[in-house]
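Quick start: what a row looks like.
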Amino acid sequence: MVREEPATVVGALPMYHSNPAAVERLWAGLAAHLTKGGVGGVPLLPAWPVDFHAHWLEPQLLLSQACGFPLVIELGRKVRVVGTFHYNVPGCSGALQRSQIVARADDPARTLADFRGRRLAFNATVSNSGYNSLRALVAPLAQHGRFFGSSLQTGTHLDSIKAVRDGRADIASIDCVSVAGFARYTPEVMQGVRVLMQSDTYPGLPLITAGDTDDAMLVTLRHALAQSVGDPDLAEALDALFINGFEPLDFADYQPCQAMYDTAMALGCPTL
């Protein structure tokens, strides 16, 4: 009997949860391409971390998916950016995407300014799509550093949408890929919710590797990702996840996330 060698590196694609089975199929195909490229100890299944920050800083991190805002304000040069996927959903264009600002369908408000003094639902203060991009939008409208009357931290985009739908909040900012996933796989979540507007563009979720990853391994990772998104055997999984491309990016490409933060700070709007 052949004994399977234990994985010696950490890998995950943990940021979109609408179809975890498709994520695992994509990872299996990617793992095969990485192994063929000479990478040893690649896990056959991706991790599903609970503590994202600890996961991103794993010394043995081979590949994972992070968020652009914690990348620029917390992770910095502790990780290396590999690139990002392209997604075929409204609000995405190549490596760029937008947040969708959602409200209840029956809410009479029609502009962002109409939500002054209302209640926001957001997933986390370190989220680019759920917090940082929206803060940049409302900062020019803020008075004495405030725009919303109150806010509710939900922990996830899904729970933010539910809070708006159920009347516990009035507005939320959700990345366009998550909105598309909810609409396809859990359409009941989006019932009674509409898109009010979109944020400015920012780079899609960064695929990252450990900070001490050398240039040769970075090239291998990028090659395996490019092969995976073009692999006909993975076409079904890729379609299920809305992925239609991969683009190599570097840390500097995520400065739009930093610029959104800097804009809000300069306008005296540090929090939502």
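That is the whole record. The mean pLDDT is 95. Residues 10-85+203-254 form a domain with the D-Maltodextrin-Binding Protein; domain 2 fold (CATH 3.40.190.180).
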